[in-house]
Amino acid sequence: MVRASAPGTGWARTQVLLGGLLVAGVFTLVSTGSAQNPSPAKTPPKPEPAKPELAKGDQPKVQRVIVAKTPEVAEMTKVINQKLEEGWKANKITPSHEVGDLEYLRRASLDIIGRVPTWEEIAVYRKDAPEKRRSLLIERLLSNEDYPRHWANVWSNWLLTRSGMFGRGTYHDQMDLWLEDKFAQNTSYDKIVKSLLTASGKNTDSGNGAVNFILAHVGEPIRDPKLIKEEGHFEMVPLTARITRLFLGIQIQCAQCHDHPFLNSLKQERFWGVNAFLRQVNREGTLAMQRNQTPGPLTLVDDVKVNVEALGFYEKRNGVKLDEKAVFLPSGPQKKAHKLSTDSKEKDLQGLTRREELADALVDHEQFPKALVNRYWGTFFGRGFVNPIDDFNDQNLPSNPELLDELAAKFKHYGYDLKSLIRWICNSEAYQLSCVANKTNDKPEQEALFSRMMLKSMAPEQLYESLMVATNKIAVQTNQEKKDQRTTWLDGLISNFGDDEGNEVNFNGTVVQALMMMNGQNINEAIMLKEKGTVANAISSSRTEDEVITKLFLAALTRDPTPRELARIKEDFRLALPEHRTKDAKDPAARFHDLFWALLNSNEFLLNH
Question: Which of 43, 276, 306, 433 could bridge across to 312 with cysteines, CB 3.0–4.6 Å?
């Protein structure tokens, strides 16, 4: 048996506290958002005396008012609501009840800015008029400085993965900085993608981190000088697959060696036709081969002296060797393919202009807006219309094709505005539903109808940022300390969470994850901060034991304790063993350290619900 080391009075009492919060390791919603909200107050908020609990779903129905900076939000939210409701009625499904305000606050904060809310943010939210509260929250989150940081990190992981030399460290940070600037300016999605595909130069140049996307995925080098002149410097196979998978939702790698088994229109030559657009790319510089080596500068250039004919070379299963001219995937009702012309009289498509042609063809493809809408929908709802989110094929059709088509068309029409898409999703009724199923929507096959929210494990980055906010550790660190600790924590979190391939949408919680959290020295140190730590602040700003407990619940779980939980915890305090009471006399904060530790290690904290 592995024992967890609680920071305060020891394992025995913490077992008791955890017993009231964890039930057989399964997450249980305990009237989340059901208790009446206390009046707004200064940070840390002063709670009112506990009021009677409401049964789940019994909170008064509020007629929501959408407050947004763009006029189409109400229109598109209505489209989402209507299309999903049609599916519910057709399948005789009653959607789950709406979550309470505080649970919605936590969910939206994790999804939009990548962390749980602070005490101050909870207080501001509670001051808003109930009917406008959620819509106003979305606008604040989209304007929060953590919005571009969070989405830069999300996209860096999608673009570079979490593995290899580009998965962490200098190259990953360069991409982060470039993306953060783009999200801060709300650059349109099509322009971001075109910039990624046409970036050139040194990755050490200021604001040039975008080159790392192509540099990370060039694949195996071609070493024979004769073949280099004909075929190019690198095989470019990984990049070919990642471009179509990320930006079109098509796993074209399945057609590298044979015709795609699940997409009839995707023949083997299609893979190599896309590949041919990239064959003049060259990566200059030496790539560090081990994680402990200092990453050197790399340069992305286009060599117009190689692969002049724009050909992709491949071999059929029968051993016949063929080549394919640069031609992009067919699109539109006529399934027209975008072909690259190498006729200098018409247009000189060598070097960078070849990649520019590829970028134009990609953005013009019918799948381009659909893939992004499906990817974001899956990020916010835990699954996409097409699931997995990047595997559109003839045997994996959208669960609600009309809604997906409408959202994709309007996303394109309104200028590929990512913030607008988030507004549409987060203002929708479906996004505000509980993860608790009822007898009409509890089957796995009904998940695709979005009549309830899916439970989502926090990504390592979300967990780290949430722990820093919940414990207020960020208040006592220098910028360099924050950077160093973030690197150390994330290295541990990612390896302990399991999957390090970078292809995941969400990490799955594991026993290893829970044990790592419970036994972590870093989390214990953060909990026991004496000057500006959450426990210290809660004690110094409270007059009663009830107030301290409530503030710890708000910091960790973004909710008040229920009357039953409050009574149970206070009783556990009184039933502490004599040796623990002796320690409490010397350190009055000890029992609150134990409680806070238990809350942060609960499934309710670890899951985005």
Answer: 276
Decide: helix, strand or coil at residue 211. helix
Distance set, CA 561 to CA 24, 32, 102, 266 (Å): 20, 9, 12, 55
d(CA 559, CA 304): 61
Radius of gyration, CA atoms only, the chain: 26
Rounded Cα distance between 604 and 20, Å, is 12
How far apart CA 473 and CA 484 sit, in angstroms, is 13
Residue 188 has which token pair? Answer: 């349109």
Q: Are 278 and 241 in contact (CB under 8 A)?
A: no
Residue type, 260: H
Structure tokens at 569: 């915890």
Averaged pLDDT of the chain: 83
Q: 569 with 527: CB under 8 angstroms?
A: no
Q: How far is CA 566 from CA 30, 34, 354, 371, 464, in A?
A: 12, 15, 65, 46, 27
Q: Determine the Cα–Cα distance for residues 559 and 431; give it in Å rounded to an integer.
A: 19
CA 235 vs. chain centroid, Å, equals 31
Give the highest mean pLDDT range of 28-32, 349-353, 447-451, 453-457.
447-451
Share of the chain above pLDDT 90, in %: 57
* Bridge partners, residue 279, by sequence: none
Tokens 């959450």 found at: 534
CB 251 within 8 Å of CB 239: no
Distance CA 333, CA 344 (A): 30
Q: Distance between CA 595 and CA 487 in Å, rounded?
A: 28
Ramachandran category for residue 24: left, alpha or beta (phi over 0 → left; psi -120 to 50 → alpha): left
Predicted TM-score (pTM) of this structure: 0.88
What does DSSP assign to residue 472?
T
Peptide bond into 388 cis (omega under 30): yes
Query: In the numeric block, which tokens belong to residue 493?
Result: 């979190």
39-92 pLDDT tens trace: 333 445 554 444 433 334 445 678 889 988 788 999 999 999 999 999 999 999
CA distance 528 to 471: 9
Q: Please choose, from the candidates 427, 421, 418, 419, the residue with its C-alpha nearest in 3D space to the C-alpha of residue 407.
A: 421
Q: Which of 3-12, 114-123, 271-280, 564-573 has the highest mean pLDDT?
A: 114-123
Tokens of 156: 């860096």
First to last CA, the chain: 29
Span 25-50, average pLDDT: 38
Residue-range domain boundaries for the chain: 11-60+457-608, 217-365
Higher per-residue confidence, 311 vs 578: 311
Bridge partners, residue 457, by sequence: 607
Residue-wise pLDDT for 359-407, tens only, equals 999 999 999 999 999 999 999 999 999 999 999 988 899 999 999 999 9
- Across the range 320-335, mean pLDDT stands at 83
What is the dihedral angle through the alpha carbons of 476, 480, 485, 491, rounded to the nearest 10 degrees?
160
Rounded-to-integer distance, Cα 334 and Cα 266, Å: 15
pLDDT tens-digit map of 503-532: 443 444 444 455 455 556 777 888 888 878
Q: Give the closest residue to 211 by CA, choosing from 125, 297, 131.
A: 297
